[in-house]
Each structure stands twice: as C-alpha cells, then as structure tokens.
Design brief:
The chain is mainly α and about 675 residues long. The chain has two domains: about 30-60 and about 335-455 and about 470-670, Glycosyltransferase (Alpha/alpha barrel); about 60-330, Glycosyltransferase. Helix content is about 45%, strand content about 5%. The chain contains 23 helices and five strands. The strands form two sheets. A three-stranded antiparallel sheet has the order 1-5-4, with no helix packed on it. It is globular, with a radius of gyration of 25 Å.
C-alpha cells in the first residue's frame, strides 16, 4: 500500500463507528461509578477505526516542525504551503521569554530554540523581527549555538551554516566494525542506529546543500571564539569522554586525507543497511528524524526528489501531519499497536465481552500485525524465533518488548475466528518476550543486553538514549505478562527479574519510569506486576504504596512533571492528571485493594473530572521519548488508563471477574536455558 493511496487515507483518517453498545456487568456498585465506566466504555469504542485498531495522536515539541522546514529547504521546496503552516505552528509555541520548551510548562530549551529560530529564518522570518530578536536573546542566555546538541550542529553543517569541524564525526566505517569490538553499531540503541547510519553517508559525501536564500545563523553564537565548546576536554584527564573526544579529533584528521582505504566499502555497507531497513517499514524505523535522514542520504548518493523511494519516504512523513486551522504539527512516530493493546485491556477489564465486534476486530488486527520475519534484535538474540509486535503499523526490523507484552495481555482475553493461528501467535509472542530478558534480569525495549554505558560518552550521544538497557517499567510489563499467563514467582526468569527490580527501587520506595512520566508510572507498573505473580504483600510493595500515598495530591489525584527527570527531588510532584491518577490508582489497587482511603480519593478524582461524553481532559505530557531531551503526549492515555483503573476498582470492590482468559500456558513448555529464554 502506498502512502498516498485513497485506501490508506480512508483507513487511517476516518474513525469507525461501533454501533453495538457494550454489555458491562453490573453488581452492587455506586451508580455514579457505574455510569462513569459505561460512559468511558462507549467513548473509547467510538474512537475505534473501522479496521479494528485504535490510534491516537502522539504529540511532541516543535523540533519536528523545524526538521520538516529544514527538509523542504534541502529539497529546494520552501515555497511549499506546508512550510508556512509549520512556521505558523512554531511561532504559536514560542514562550514569553522568547524560547521554546520541550513540554508544556517547562523552561526554554536551547537546542529546541535554536532549531526553531533557524527554521523560521528559512521560512522567511527576518532576523530583526521582534519575535526573532527575542528568541536570539534567549538563545544567548541559554549558552548560544556553541552549546547545542550534536544533531543540531550536524544539520547546520549539512546546509553550510557552520563548518563540519563543529559537528561530530560519524564516519560510515563505523558499520564495518565487528561486533566483538568495544564500539560497534549494534551496541547502540535501535533508534540511534536508524538515525546515524544515513548521517554517516552524508558525513562521508558532504553534499553541497547551501542555498542562496539562507544566510546562516552566526548571530546565534554567544561567543564565536568558543565555537567548539561542545568538544571541550573533561577536567578528568583519564576519562571515557576524553578518549572519545580524542577519537573524534582523529577521525576528523582522517577526513582530510586524500585516500581512505575503506571508505567506498563503508558507504556501500551503509547504503545496504539503509535500503534493507527502508524496505520492510513505513519509513525508516518509523520515526521522523530517521525518515528525514534517510531522504538526505538518498539525495547525497544521487537521488532526486522525484525518485520513487524518496517520494515514498516523503509520503510517510506527510502521513504524520496533523492539520489544525492554519498550522501543521508533526507526530514523531505513530502508535496504533500500542494504543490498540491498551484500549483492549481497558475494555476487557470493564467487562466488554470478547465476542463484541469491536474487540474481535481488534484481536484479529493485532494477530495480523505480529512480526514473523527477521530484525535487528536477532544480532544479540540469535537463537530465538520471531514473534514480537512493533509500535506502529509496519516496522518489521524493530519489534519491542513493551508493545509485545501489552499485546499478549490484550489477546489473553480475546477471541479469533482462527483459533489455531491465534494460539500459535500468542505462544510465539510469549517465547519472544522470554528470550529478550537481559543478563541483569530486566528487559530493555528493542534489544537484548544493549547496556554499554561507556558509549554514552561519544560526542553524538547527547540525545541521552545512546543505549537501551533494562528499565523497571519494561521489566514490570514483562513480569505482569508472564504472570498473567501462569508464570509464578518461583520461575527462574521471574526470580532474576525480581532481583533486578529490588536493586532498582529508590530509597523512598519508588521505581523510575523510562517510558512514562515518571516515578508514578514506574511504581504503578511494578506494583501491578507484583500482583500478577502473587508478590504484592512484599516489603518492597509496602514501601512503594507508602511512597504513592505520600505523593498523592490533596485533591485525590496524582501528577508528576517532566521536571522530575532533571531533579529527582520532584518525584511524584505535579498537577493531577487523568493518566497519572489512573496509574497511581492502579498501583494502589494492586497492593492495598479497593477499601483504602487513598484509593477512594483517587476514584473520586477520576469520576469528578470525567466529561459528559465519557472522556477526560489532559494538557500535560505524560509520555517519555528520551528522558531530559524529548517528551510525548499520548492523546489516548487520558481515556484508556482511567477506564481501566475505574473498572479495576469496581471489579475488586464487588468481586466481579473480568472477561475470562482465553489462554493459559504451562511455563515448562517454554525453553529457558542458562538464564536465557
């Protein structure tokens, strides 16, 4: 299916209707609570697409709109109406202090502000315009262009705005390094690989993309004499930072040599990797930075904007646009598999029957999207068979553990017209999750044992996500999934995971949230996992509940700002939100049950803040891309998680069991050798 086909436009932009109202069991419940659950069920069903999936907007900061303006600049297409509308959105998001932030209510962030400034300049805004002068002043206060992250400087070097000496070295020879070396491509996170492989082609070829309409951004340096501030040596002489800075300088000297013996072979390998990964995805890695970089790389090797593969990548990027009034905003990626799994679990907990047409369509859609082909994860997990799910419609090289575990929990209570295929898909998914467990007992997102911390010192590692190590929230999801399917706390895989989680608990009793904001998310997930394996009365759980109660807001809700990633003293502190109140409530229910006063207060907050149509409002970003660097707002979180929490409370209060489970497997049927799945 091509991205501009009428069929795709219909499927992915027209919300399907669910005409059959869900039958939800009613017992001795408060009528207001039952009405809240009923409204939430019907509202969530109304958001389902006709093919069976759910897909909510994934909102981020203005770096994406800035990137798209840069893309049109390189394509020599700045007169495209999209550029004007992206610029309108960027101007709309400028703060009173002149800068741009990375989450609502957050402070101005330097790299985001620099990107916004040069994007607006490309779009035609004059440097002496009041809003541009205001932005420039704030950028200087934040440290200037010389303090921006490596990718900002790389993009500016691409268009001749600064010299290549101010950008990090990303040579394609990196792809030739064998896996036994202490630095190699597959010791970097999946998203880093997808971003830097195309950039390595550009670094090698250095195409001339200077445009006469763009005069550069020299005015953004706070101190031009200190332009290489990002490459300053660490005071600690013997350090990984200094080692990698020395390597960076050596590589830049190597670039000046007239003869590079491995260069052509390296470029060929980078091109092979790039085109192979584009072929089985809807855009490279289905994330905007990688997709845009893939277009740059194709242009660098001689493609033109009208080439079919370039047009295809552009089509997928355009499919991520959200139009509103005279603005365009971009989603960084899309989340239909994730949104569908969460919606299904919430509706199932609310008692919607597995035979309901909406749930049947959703289950069949998920089974159809299981990835049964090879992927990058096999580099470090060679013996396991495929069976995972990705986040998006199609991203075959990059299934992830979190999505797969949530999908399996959704399918556990579902039905499918092809029972054998359904059961085999679930069995493959469970085996895949088990096989992805790390040596430390936890789970990462996309790869196994992707945890070389020394790589975070590489100059282009300043996106704070160079590696993909175990995280408490993904480990918790995996344990919850295994527990729901019959794994007990005595199973070796669960034992290792429990040991990992005990090590990760903070002194206050909380757990860090890598993929959701933040300690409320992480703590809730762990408590839910502990309940699934019957360990919810442990010392660790009691400490966690005490912490949750200590951060519950006076209004009964829970909230936490993205600021807690920068300042751990702000754990669990923030304005109450629907999604975070639901997470707090889910964690409490998993340990203290429905009769606790803190539970009642959280339930009251959710019921009081529900809209008449069954939805909740939420302006805050409660999702995490890269901690301290990139945050997200999942637009369906505010509806799916509160429904699950309220339904869970009602079921526990009244002894109602949710939809019966379709599958239960004997853990002994699954191989687990030497601590590996």
């Amino acid at each position: 299916m091509t991205p501009d086909s009428a069929e795709m436009q219909e499927i992915r932009t027209s919300t399907g209707t669910a005409t059959q109202r869900a039958r939800v069991p009613v017992a001795r419940v408060d009528s207001r609570l039952d009405a809240a659950v009923q409204r939430a069920v019907q509202h969530l069903l109304s958001l389902q697409f006709s093919d069976g999936y759910w897909w909510g907007e994934l909102e981020a900061d203005t770096t994406l709109e800035s990137d798209c303006i840069l893309l049109h600049h390189i394509l020599q297409d700045v007169q495209n109406p999209r550029v004007r509308r992206f610029a309108n959105y960027i101007r709309k998001k400028q703060q009173a202090d002149g800068g741009w932030n990375i989450y609502p209510g957050g402070p101005a962030e330097l790299s985001t502000s620099v990107k916004a400034y040069f994007a607006l300049k490309i779009a035609g805004d004059l440097p002496n315009a009041p809003h541009m002068e205001h932005a420039r002043k704030r950028i200087h206060e934040l440290g200037g262009l010389e303090r921006t992250n490596s990718y900002v400087r790389f993009y500016l070097a691409m268009i001749g705005a600064i010299g290549w000496d101010l950008a990090p070295a990303i040579p394609p020879e990196l792809l030739l390094l064998p896996q036994w070396m202490f630095v190699n491509l597959y010791d970097m996170s999946s998203w880093t690989r997808a971003i830097i492989v195309p950039l390595s082609i550009i670094y090698a070829l250095k195409p001339d993309w200077r445009r006469p309409t763009f005069s550069g951004v020299d005015e953004l340096f706070a101190n031009r004499a200190n332009a290489k501030a990002a490459f300053a040596w660490s005071p600690k002489v013997i350090s990984w930072r200094n080692i990698f800075l020395a390597i960076d300088r050596t590589l830049k000297l190597h670039e000046r040599l007239p003869w590079k013996p491995f260069r052509q072979r390296a470029i060929a390998e980078a091109k092979r990797w790039l085109f192979e990964h584009i072929e089985r995805s809807e855009g490279l890695a289905t994330i905007i930075p990688a997709m845009a970089n893939s277009i740059y790389a194709m242009l660098a090797v001689g493609a033109v904007p009208g080439d079919p593969l370039v047009r295809r990548e552009l089509g997928w990027i355009n499919a991520y646009e959200i139009e509103e009034d005279d603005t365009l905003r971009m989603q960084p990626c899309i989340s239909p598999v994730w949104d569908t799994a969460i919606a299904m679990v919430s509706l199932e907990e609310a008692g919607v029957e597995a035979s309901h047409p909406g749930l049947k369509r959703a289950a069949e859609w998920l089974v159809d999207h299981q990835i049964l082909g090879p992927g990058d994860w096999q580099v470090k997990n060679k013996d396991a068979a495929p069976g995972g799910w990705a986040f998006e419609f199609r991203n075959d090289f990059f299934p992830d553990v979190d999505d797969t575990a949530f999908v399996l929990m959704a399918l556990q209570r579902a039905v499918h017209t092809d029972a054998h295929r359904f059961e085999q898909g679930v069995r493959r998914g469970l085996a895949w999750v088990l096989s992805m467990q790390n040596r430390d007992g936890g789970w990462g997102a996309f790869d196994r044992d992707n945890d070389k911390k020394l790589l975070t010192n590489i100059p282009f590692a300043d996106h704070n996500a160079m590696i993909d190590p175990s995280s408490a929230d993904v480990a918790a999801r995996s344990i919850e999934c295994l527990g729901n399917f019959g794994w007990s706390s005595s199973h070796p895989a669960v034992q290792k995971a429990l040991a990992y989680l005990r090590r990760e608990q903070t002194p206050e009793g909380a757990w860090y949230g890598r993929w959701g904001v933040n300690y409320v998310y992480g703590t809730s997930g762990v408590l839910r996992a502990m309940e699934a394996i019957g360990c919810n009365d442990s010392v660790e759980c009691r400490r966690a509940v005490d912490w949750l109660k200590s951060v519950q807001n006076a209004d009964g809700g829970f909230g936490e700002s993205c600021k807690s990633y920068n300042d751990p003293k702000l754990k669990g502190i923030g304005k109450s939100t629907a999604s975070q109140t639901a997470w707090g409530l889910i964690g409490l229910l998993a340990t203290v049950g429905p009769d606790d006063a803190a539970v009642s207060r959280a339930v009251a907050w959710l019921t009081e803040h529900q809209g008449e149509d069954g939805s909740w409002d939420e302006d805050e970003f409660t999702g995490t891309g890269f901690p301290r660097v990139f945050y997200l707002k999942y637009h369906l979180y505010r509806n799916s998680f509160p429904l699950y929490a309220l339904a869970r409370y009602r079921n526990m209060q009244n002894g109602i069991k949710a939809t019966p489970q379709t599958f239960q497997f004997d853990p002994n049927q699954f191989k687990y050798r030497n601590g590996r799945g």
